[in-house]
Amino acid sequence: MVGLLASTWISTPAQAGDVDLDALVEGIPACSDTAEHCFGVVLHIVVDDEGAAQSSDWLEAQLAEANKHFAPIGVSFEVSRVEAEDADHAHVDTRRHRDKLGRDDFSKGEVHVYIVRRLDNVDAEGEIYGVHWRDRKKRSRRWIIISARAWKTTLAHELGHFFGLPHSEYPISIMNKTSRTDPPPEQRTFAEEELEEMRSDRDAMLKSGMLEDR
C-alpha cells in the first residue's frame, strides 16, 4: 500500500510569493512500503512571475514513473523536502549555470532535483529535457536538472545516470536515446544488464553515504 507524503517531511514554510510549494507536493505518494530501499528526493522548483515551473500532476507523474522503473532493484523514491528557486534559474543555459545551481545546496544522502523552465544543450544548439550534472570543481557533488518540458520518463532516465548508467543501445531501455518504434514507448524500461549494474551502484552509494535509506 502506498501512503501519502506526510506534511512533516517537507521544509516549512516553503512558499515564494503566492505559491505554496507544500501544497504542490502534499499529494505525491511516499515510497512503497514493499520497497527494500527508500530514498529521498529534494525538489528545488523554480518560482517566478508565472508561478511554479510545473504542476503537482506533472511532479507526481515523474516520481511515479521513476518508482515503476526502479522497482525491480528494490528502490523507491519520495519527496523529502521542497525548496523554491528564484526566477534567475528559470533558464539554465551554460555549464557555469549548471554548477551554480546546485553547488551551495548539495548534500549527501538524498537526490537533489531541480525543476527549471528551460534547459539548454551546452554541447550543441537547442534545448534538452534533463541532465545528470556533476560539479566541475568537485565531481562527487552531483544533481539532476529537469526542464518543465520534459517527458514523464525524464526523471527515471536521469536517475539511471545517477545510478551509474551511460546511454545504451538496448532497444528496451529508457537509456537508449535513438528513435525507434520497437518496442513502443510504453513498454520500455531498464534492460536486465542495466538493472544488475544499478544494483551494484545502489549498494556502493549506500556504503559511501551518497544515498541513505529513509
Q: Features of this protein?
A:
alpha/beta, Collagenase (Catalytic Domain), disordered N terminus, 12 strands, six-stranded mixed sheet, two-stranded antiparallel ribbon, single chain
Poorly predicted sequence stretches spanning 5 or more consecutive residues: 1-16
- How much is the average pLDDT? 92
Strand content: 25-35%
Radius of gyration over all CA atoms, rounded:
16 Å
The H/E string reads: EEEHEEEHEEHEEEEHH
The global form is: globular
- Describe the sheet with the most strands: 6 strands, mixed
Which structural class fits the helix and strand makeup? alpha/beta
Measured as a percent range, the helix fraction is 25-40%
Please report the distance between the alpha carbons of the first and last residues.
17 Å
The tally of beta strands, per DSSP, is 12
Give the name of the CATH superfamily: Collagenase (Catalytic Domain)
Tally of individual domains = 1
What is the assembly state of the chains in this entry? single chain
